[in-house]
């Protein structure tokens, strides 16, 4: 289970990642991973020792926390990457390297949404899958304000403009939507 703010269970990482059908040996990127590794470490168990999980974030402290946990848990195939995802081409991962990528709970924080989807598309192989999880429009006592939330319709439009097609939508949690996109 994923814990947000150290208290509330909001997102079940294993259940959510099952929508991506991550397999042994795949390369997965958690774009905007944060410091807890809620999706990094469940993903690394799915890719096995022949796969790789890239944990990407703009905050070095988050990456340091991921590195420490990966070392403690003996996951040498977790690779941390310091990058601003809003600068296309800045992420030090080769074009088309990833089989799967995630953008989880970060859209409301992003200034240039088009750039972040363009960067995700650059990193994914053709027909690779992108999982987007973000806050739904329903009001809640926590999370971003309603005016900062990016609704699913806008998310789909942004992704389609840069070479994705929506293949699945689901309720990711009581306050979150999920969308799977395929790179075209």
Automatic annotation (TrEMBL):
CDD domains: AdoMet_MTases. Transmembrane segments: none annotated. It holds the Pfam family Methyltransf_11. InterPro entries: Methyltransf_11, SAM-dependent_MTases_sf. Residues 30-131 form the Methyltransferase type domain. GO terms for molecular function: S-adenosylmethionine-dependent methyltransferase activity. Gene3D superfamilies: Vaccinia Virus protein VP39 (3.40.50.150). This is Methyltransferase type 11 domain-containing protein. It comes from Candidatus Uhrbacteria bacterium RIFCSPLOWO2_01_FULL_47_25.
């Amino acid at each position: 289970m994923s814990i947000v703010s150290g208290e509330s269970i909001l997102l079940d990482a294993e259940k959510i990642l099952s929508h991506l059908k991550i397999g042994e040996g795949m390369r997965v990127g958690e774009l905007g991973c944060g410091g807890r590794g809620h999706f990094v470490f469940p993903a690394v168990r799915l890719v096995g020792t022949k796969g790789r999980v890239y944990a990407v974030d703009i905050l070095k402290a988050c990456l340091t926390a991921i590195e420490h946990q990966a070392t403690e848990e003996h996951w040498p195939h977790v690779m941390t990457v310091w990058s601003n995802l809003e600068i296309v081409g800045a992420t030090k991962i080769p074009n088309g390297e990833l089989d799967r990528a995630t953008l989880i709970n970060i859209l409301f924080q992003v200034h240039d949404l088009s750039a972040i989807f363009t960067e995700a598309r650059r990193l994914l192989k053709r027909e690779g899958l992108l999982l987007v999880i973000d806050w739904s429009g329903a009001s809640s006592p926590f999370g971003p304000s309603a005016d900062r939330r990016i609704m699913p319709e806008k998310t789909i439009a942004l992704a389609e403009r840069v070479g994705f097609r929506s293949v699945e939508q689901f309720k990711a949690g009581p306050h979150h939507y999920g969308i799977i996109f395929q790179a075209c």
